[in-house]
Specification:
Keywords: Ligase. One of its GO terms (molecular function) is ligase activity. By secondary structure, the protein is an alpha/beta fold. β17 and β18 form a beta hairpin. Among the domains are: 135 residues, Rossmann fold (3-Layer(aba) Sandwich); 116 residues, GMP Synthetase, Chain A, domain 3. It is built from 18 helices and 23 strands. The strands form six sheets. A nine-stranded mixed beta sheet has the order 2-1-9-8-10-11-12-13-14. Strands 15-16-17-18 form a four-stranded antiparallel beta sheet, with no helix packed on it. A three-stranded parallel beta sheet has the order 4-3-5, with helices on one face.
Length: 571
């Protein structure tokens, strides 16, 4: 099918009323993804810079298309701000030189095409240089921002990397894998040609928080990565050379490298700001004109508190899986002076290549600044499947968004509701935390040897509302002894130390009881049933049941000191 990309870009800038459904070209792009990608690639090439080497459906040279094409522009590829150092910029030319030298060093250490390179960096210069060095060598990268040692060990064991890129002070997080650490001293001699990937080559193995369990490496093919980047860069965010994109507080593992690829492919600048710094002073966010700004509820509340005026923003977007508090959003829009600024819902899954759901980004009505409308992204084939997980198509107007082809892809989790020609984000399949899975098993395993705990279980609770958000409550059983006054702090400290702050539950509930066990393991189904029926609260206050709990505790202590098998607590 023929696609007029110039006209498409004009329509996206103007916006469209979602009541009439997706525009005709959008619907046709679902039916002809290859033709649509070819049209975007042709329009992307004619921008006064060297032509891209990638050819949709044939070959992909990420290093050339992301960096080499833009070296002559003398523009920053990455910009960041720190409280002490202030603004720091990393230009395309400097990034090219640093990444080329690192690739040369790594090649001498044995990195070859197809090898798995795990990048243990936070968002910053080191991450970009290592990521691009991997792409130049044809490696398969994995982003793994530093976490607690137990979480790191679980993910490294699942990944089995060939090499690891990390800074020296992160060595304690790599216990058992130290011999895989790459040395990077910046002394390599840049030279050789960058690698070209085939469409089906796996360019990345990503730990997506949208997958259950979240420590499962998900393959990202070269084709999905490149098509996602060009679609997001041109259409989702409308980026051009020198434009700035920022998404503070957006979870790294869900959104990177997709946001980086979309930005660099278009010769734009990725602006990184730490949320902890913005909470103290959001002024740096207001100092540069932003083509697109991603806003989380936490950032929204910070800007409300500081009474910031966002005159420098041309388009803002939110993740539709975040809590939908329309009143808070509209108060923020009014206070920041964004009533006439385009806004959109954008759901990004880096393991799928980028955005999977988007909405019109134009301003069509005053009441549409915050909404639930979404459409599957242009250029991706998709279907709605029945939520019963049978694999059949959805017989009703509510189904699970499934990208096609779905072979070897994790199952979808987003529920879409179709009302005439309009689609709405309708929540998730199963309990999730703002769309992301909560690693309950990792949390309970990390708490197993806390001396005052007799067992733990995590119970998800739906908060209701438009998007069926969930809270995760940790049930902490303390046996016959009440929890110490510092119990909650000790649990939080243990989780943060071994796993990281992202693993903290929403609430902790203590019960001076023993949990039911099956073959030695805490029975999560029993715990949930007892919690939801109120039985745990009643038993915790019942004098007779407390006496039985104390007796059971004495029996368990006696069996443990005598060396006998400890009896499994009954119901």
């Amino acid at each position: 099918m023929p696609f007029d990309v110039k006209d498409i870009l004009r329509q996206l800038e103007a916006g469209f009323a979602p009541e009439s459904g997706a525009p005709k070209w959008w619907q046709e792009s679902w039916e002809d993804p290859d033709g649509f990608a070819a049209a975007l690639a042709e329009a992307h090439a004619g921008r006064g810079v060297p032509p891209p080497k990638s050819r949709p459906g044939q070959q992909y040279d990420f290093f050339h298309d992301l960096i080499v094409r833009h070296v002559a522009l003398e523009r920053p590829a990455f910009r960041t701000h720190a409280r002490i150092q202030g603004w720091q910029a990393l230009g395309y030319r400097t990034l090219h030189d640093l990444a080329s030298r690192r690739a040369s060093e790594w090649a001498d250490q044995g990195v070859e095409p197809g090898m798995k390179v795990c990048l243990v960096h936070g968002v910053g210069q080191e991450l970009l240089v290592s990521l691009l060095a991997t792409l130049k060598l044809g490696g398969c990268f994995t982003l793994l921002p530093p976490m607690g040692p137990r979480a790191m060990a679980t993910r490294l064991a699942a990944l089995k990397p060939d090499f690891i890129a990390a800074e020296p002070h992160q060595l304690p997080l790599l216990k058992g894998h130290e011999q895989l650490l790459l040395k990077s001293q910046g002394r390599g001699a840049p030279g050789f040609t960058s690698h070209t990937y085939k469409p089906t080559d796996v360019v990345g193995l990503l730990f997506s928080p949208l997958v259950d369990p979240p420590h499962t490496p998900v393959p990202l093919t070269a084709e999905n990565a490149w098509k996602g980047a060009i679609g997001d860069g041109m259409l989702t965010f409308g980026l051009g050379q020198g434009d700035l994109l920022a998404a503070p507080d957006f979870p790294v593992l869900q959104h990177l490298p997709a946001l980086l690829f979309a930005t660099l492919l278009r010769g734009a600048t990725y602006l990184h700001l730490e949320m902890a710094d913005l909470a103290l002073n959001p002024a740096p966010l207001l100092e540069h004109p932003l083509r697109a700004l991603g806003v989380t509820p936490k950032l929204r509340d910070v800007l409300l508190r500081h009474r910031a005026s966002l005159r420098n923003v041309q388009h803002w977007f939110r993740n539709p899986e975040e809590p939908y508090d329309a009143q808070a959003w509209r108060t923020w829009v009014k206070q920041c002076g964004l009533q006439s600024v385009p806004s959109s819902n954008i759901l990004i899954d880096a393991s799928a290549g980028g955005a999977v759901l988007v909405s019109s980004r134009g301003v069509t009505e005053a009441s549409t600044d915050v909404h639930t409308d979404v459409f599957p992204v242009p250029g991706r084939a998709w279907t709605l499947k029945d939520p019963n997980e049978s694999g059949q198509g959805a017989p009703s107007d509510v189904g699970v968004l499934t990208l096609l082809p779905d072979k070897d892809r994790p199952p979808g989790h987003v529920l879409l509701a179709r009302i005439r020609q309009r689609y709405h984000y309708a929540g998730t399949q199963g309990f999730r935390h703002d769309g992301r899975t909560y690693s309950a098993k990792e949390v309970t395993a990390a708490l197993e040897d806390l001396p005052f705990l007799a067992g733990t279980s995590v119970v998800p609770v739906s908060t209701g509302g438009l998007a069926s958000h969930s809270r995760f409550i940790l049930l902490a059983f303390t046996g016959a002894t009440p929890a110490p006054s510092s119990g909650e702090q000790e649990i939080i400290r243990r989780i943060e130390m071994l796993l990281g702050g992202d693993f903290l539950p929403d609430r902790i509930e203590f019960f001076p009881l023993f949990p039911h066990r099956v073959e030695g393991a805490v029975d999560d189904a029993w715990c949930a049933s007892q919690f939801f029926t109120g039985a745990l609260h009643r038993k915790a206050k019942d004098p007779m049941f407390q006496a039985l709990t104390a007796l059971r505790g004495r029996l368990l202590e006696s069996a443990a000191t005598s060396g006998e098998d400890v009896p499994s607590p009954s119901r």
